[in-house]
Amino acid sequence: MTTAIDVQVRGSGIVGKALALALGRIGVTVALQAEPRRADAPEDVRAYALNAASVRLLASLKVWDALAPGDATPVYDMRVRGDDGASALEFSAWQQRVGELAWIVDAAAVERELDSALRFAPHVSVGTALQPAALTAICEGRASAGRAELGVAFDEHPYGQRAIAARLTASAPHAGTALQWFRSPDVLALLPIDKPRGGASYALVWSLPDARARALLDADDAGFVAELMAATGGAAGELALASRRAAWPLSVGQARSWCGPGWVLLGDAAHVIHPLAGQGLNLGLADVAALVDVIAAREPWRRLGDERLLRRYVRQRAAPTWAMQRTTDALWRLFSHDADAFKGLRNQGIGAVNRITPLKRWLTAQALNS
Q1: Helix (H, G, I), strand (E, B) or coil at 151
Q2: What range(s) does the FAD-binding domain occupy (predicted)?
Q3: What pLDDT, on a 0 to 100 scale, did the predictor assign at position 3?
Q4: Where are the domains of the chain?
Q5: Contact 183, 208 (CB under 8 A)
Q6: DSSP sequence for 223-291
Q7: Which stretches of the chain score pLDDT less than 70?
C-alpha cells in the first residue's frame, strides 16, 4: 500500500517528539499526533536526569543548545546515603574522568524546545488526527491506547508506591551535587537544578508507599517541608517549596511484544522502571536512537513496516532494557525491607562499594552510557 506518510508517531511526549524530529532529519516523512496543551494544565514540576547519550541525541536535533540558562544543570558529584545516616556512596565526575555525571533538565523546557524545533522540521507535520502510514510508532506512555488497540499485553507489577515530585529552594548552594537517600521503605532524591533560583534549587523525587505518599500530599506546605527536613537531616540546608506537588504510581513492566507488521513500541509504551536510578527517559531516548539507526541503515527495497526490520531494533534494545529493569527492581527490593538484618547488610554494602574505586567507575559507566 502506498501512503503519503512514512511514519505515524502516536504520543507527543519527549520520546515521541524526539522520534519525529530524528526521523525527519534522515528524510522520513512523519505525522506526529499531538494533543493541544490545555490552558488550565497544571505546572509541570518534572525534572529528568539525562546521561551523555541522551544529551548527544538532543544536541543532534538542535534542541540541547537551545535550552535557556537554568534549564539544564550539570551534576558533578553524587552522594548516596543509607539507613544509618553514616553509610555513604560517593561518585564524582573527576573520578570517572568525564565532564559531568549527568544533566538535570527541566521537563517543560525540553518539551518547549522540541516543539520549537518541530515548527521548522520540513518532513514533520503535527496534528490531532491519525494518518495512514507505512509504520506506526507508539510512544504514548505506560497507559498506551495504541498498544491496547493492537491487543498487545503489558505485564506490569505495581510497587504499591508513588513518586512525589516538586521544586525546592535551599539556603545553601547545591554545588552541582545530587543527593539521594535509600531509607526503607522510601527513596528520596534531591537533584540540583538552577530553576527557580540559580545555584540553590533542587528537583525533588520522593518514592514512598502509597499511604505515606497520600498523607504527605494532603499535608500543608509547612507540614510537608517539616517531613522533608527530617528525612534529609539538613544536608541540603533549609528547604522550601517552590512549586506544587505532583505524584504518580510506580511499577515495573514490559510489553510482551515490541513490534509487529507495521507497528513498533518505544519508551514507556514498551517498558517502565522504578525511578530510583533516574534512567526511564534515558531508556526511551535510547529507543529513539536505535530505531532511527535501524531505519537509516535499512535495505532500499525493504518497507518501513517490515517486521524483520523492526526486530533489529528490538534486538538492540531488549538486553540493555532488561538489565536496567532488573537492576532497579533488585535495588528497590533490597531497600524496601525494613528488617534490621537487611539494614545492616545494605549499609555495609554501600560502604564496601564506596571503597572499591574500579567498581564505582564501572557502575557509573553503565549509567552514563545506558
Answers
A1: coil
A2: 137-326
A3: 63
A4: 5-156+250-369
A5: no
A6: HHHHHHHHHHTTTT-SEEE-S--EEEEEEEEEES-SEETTEEE-GGGTEE--GGGS-HHHHHHHHHHHH
A7: 1-3, 39, 83-88, 334-370
Answer yes or no: are the C-beta atoms of 39 and 169 closer than 8 Å.
no
Residue 305 CA to residue 308 CA, distance in Å, equals: 9
Biggest alpha carbon distance in the chain?
65
Assess contact for 72 and 214: CB atoms under 8 A: no
By DSSP bridging, strand 88-92 and strand 77-81 are: antiparallel
Q: Do 166 and 241 meet the contact criterion of CB atoms below 8 Å apart?
A: yes
The edge-to-edge listing of strands for the beta sheet with 102-106 is 47-50, 102-106, 72-75
What is the topology classification, in CATH, of domain 5-156+250-369?
Answer: FAD/NAD(P)-binding domain (3.50.50)
Task: State how far the Cα of 222 lies from the Cα of 206, in Å rounded to an integer.
Answer: 17
d(C-alpha 106, C-alpha 58), whole Å: 14
C-alpha cell at 326: 532488573
Ramachandran angles phi, psi of 192, nearest 5°: -65, 130
319 touches 300 (CB < 8 A): no
